[in-house]
Specification:
Number of helices: 9
CATH architecture: 3-Layer(aba) Sandwich
Strand order of the largest sheet: 6-7-8-3-9-10
Order of helices and strands: EEEHEEHEHHHEHEHEEHH
CATH class: Alpha Beta
Distance between the termini: 43 Å
Low-confidence stretches: 246-254
Strand content: 15-25%
Helix content: 25-40%
Mean pLDDT: 92
Shape: globular
Largest sheet: 6 strands, mixed
Structural class: alpha/beta
CATH superfamily: P-loop containing nucleotide triphosphate hydrolases
C-alpha cells in the first residue's frame, strides 16, 4: 500500500466534468507537480483532497486510514484536514494578525498547543523561510513574496502528511517569484510530501520527483520529470510542452 492512495475521484460543475475517476498513488517524500492546460482540474483536485470542494465520488487513504471524500461527517472532515495543509494563490493570511500570530493560530486552535510551545514552533518555521525579521509585521506591510513565505511557514508548522500547493507564485510580481520558489525547494529537500500545481516549468524540471499531466479531468501522462519533458509519452503532452516553450519566446505552436 502506498503512503497516500487516491481512488475514483470525480468532480463536476453542472454538466462540466472536471475530474473523471482519477486514481493516484503518492509515496512519502514525493514531490509531485500537476501540469496541464488551464481548466483541466488541477486546482480542483487539490481542493477536493482538502474538502474545500466536495466531489461526486472518491476516497483518499493516508497511512492506512481511508476517508470518503463525499463525507459530511464533521469529525472525518476535520481529521482529514489535520493531515493536509493548503498553500493558496492569494496567501489567505489573517489581516489583523502579525506574521508570528498567523503561524501560531492553527497551532493553538487546531493542535491545542500552549502559547509558549506554539510560539517556539512558529518562530522555528518563520526562521526557516527567512522571515525572522518580520515577525511582528502585519500582512499589509509585507510584500507578496513575504506573505507567501509566511503562508508556507504556517502550513509547514502544522506538520502535515501532505502539503498541497495551488500555484503559489501566480499572484506574485515576477521579481518576487524566485524567493517563494526557493522556499518551496527547501521544503521539498527536507522530505515533505508535496502535491503542487504550478506553471513554472523550469522549477518543475528541477524539483519534482514526478510530473502528472492532466487533461479533460484525466491523467494522460505520469512519470519522472526527465521522462515527461524529454520523452513525452503522447502527442497531446508533446504539443502542450511545445506551446509552453514557445510562449516563453512569444511564439505559438500551430
Amino acid at each position: 500500500m502506498s503512503y497516500i492512495e487516491i481512488r475514483g475521484l470525480s468532480k463536476r460543475f453542472g454538466s462540466n466534468i472536471v475530474l473523471d475517476n482519477v486514481d493516484m498513488d503518492i509515496e512519502k517524500g514525493d514531490v509531485i507537480a500537476l501540469i496541464g492546460p488551464s481548466g483541466t482540474g488541477k486546482s480542483t483536485l487539490l481542493r477536493c483532497l482538502n474538502l474545500l470542494e466536495r466531489p461526486e465520488s472518491g476516497t483518499v487513504t493516508i497511512e492506512g486510514r481511508r476517508y470518503d471524500l463525499t463525507t459530511r461527517n464533521s469529525k472525518e472532515i476535520n481529521e482529514l484536514r489535520s493531515h493536509t495543509e493548503m498553500v493558496f494563490q492569494q496567501f489567505n493570511l489573517f489581516r489583523q494578525r502579525t506574521a508570528l500570530a498567523n503561524v501560531m493560530e492553527g497551532l493553538t486552535v487546531v493542535k491545542g498547543m500552549d502559547e509558549k510551545t506554539a510560539q517556539e514552533t512558529a518562530l522555528y518555521h518563520l526562521r526557516k523561510v527567512g522571515m525572522e525579521d518580520r515577525l511582528f509585521h502585519y500582512p499589509k506591510h509585507l510584500s507578496g513574496g513575504q506573505q507567501q513565505r509566511v503562508a508556507i511557514a504556517r502550513a509547514l508548522a502544522m506538520d502535515p502528511l501532505l502539503l498541497l500547493m495551488d500555484e503559489p507564485t501566480s499572484a506574485l510580481d515576477p521579481e518576487l517569484v524566485g524567493e517563494v520558489l526557493q522556499t518551496v525547494r527547501s521544503a521539498a529537500q527536507e522530505g515533505n510530501t508535496i502535491l503542487l500545481v504550478t506553471h513554472e516549468m523550469p522549477f518543475v524540471r528541477s524539483v519534482a520527483k514526478r510530473v502528472i499531466f492532466l487533461e479533460n479531468g484525466k491523467i494522460v501522462a505520469d512519470g519522472t520529470a526527465k521522462d515527461i519533458f524529454e520523452h513525452p509519452s503522447n502527442e497531446r503532452l508533446r504539443r502542450f510542452l511545445i506551446n509552453i516553450n514557445m510562449l516563453e519566446t512569444g511564439e505559438y505552436a500551430t
